[in-house]
Write a structure and sequence with these properties.
Layout lengths: L5 H10 L1 H29 L1 H44 L1
Helix pairs in contact: 2-3
Length: 91
């Protein structure tokens, strides 16, 4: 197994962050329609499985929010403060 230098790995990911985000966003745009279409078809053909899937997703989201509520609220308030500051600067 190859040995990796953690510092070099971190530097690489920091240097290529914008490219990586671009690739991820492009992938999301390309697959978004097909994923939503699969869910629509599943909703019609297999409503019970679709309901179970939606329930699992909902439970996961609730649990994630419960665990990370502090971080989420801090980000929201920081974003609102930044928007308010920008609004004051331009108006």
């Amino acid at each position: 197994m190859a040995q990796y230098d953690p510092k070099k790995k971190k530097e690489y990911y920091l240097e290529n962050r914008e490219k990586r985000l671009g690739y991820q966003n492009e992938y999301y745009r390309r697959t978004k329609y097909s994923y939503s279409r699969k869910l629509e078809i599943s909703k019609v053909l297999e409503p019970e499985e679709y309901g179970e899937f939606k329930k699992r997703v909902s439970n996961y989201n609730k649990e994630y929010y419960r665990k990370n509520k502090g971080k989420i609220m801090a980000k929201r308030s920081a974003r609102k403060a930044a928007l308010k500051l920008n609004k004051k600067l331009f108006f």
